[in-house]
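Protocol step 4 of 6: structure prediction from sequence.
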Amino acid sequence: MWSRQYQRRGRPEDAAPGRVFTLDGRQVVDADSLYCALGEAINGPGGNFGWNLAAVDDCLGGGFGARPPFTLEWQDSGIARSRLVNNQVRGRDTGAFFEVLLEIFAAHDIDVLLR
């Protein structure tokens, strides 16, 4: 059970560092849809890349489809940002949520292109 093959079952292989992933901001209506869109941007349809900020931070350590450094081209990021600000994330300030997400990306050497 501790073999590398067993532990990696069902997990996507990491893309080579330096890759560009495209996130469709039009699909983001709240925090949950952001996590879904991020997972699909990195790992394809139905892909997973965390379901909260701590999980996204963990996924950026590698082993979940992408290993930094890479570029995230966030299309329609303004639409996503406005929707996140207008929808509360479990009672928290969602304006701060967006900024914290960008800080997590920056801490992992992810170049985010807000389009």
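Step 5 (inspection) to follow. The chain has one domain: 20-114.
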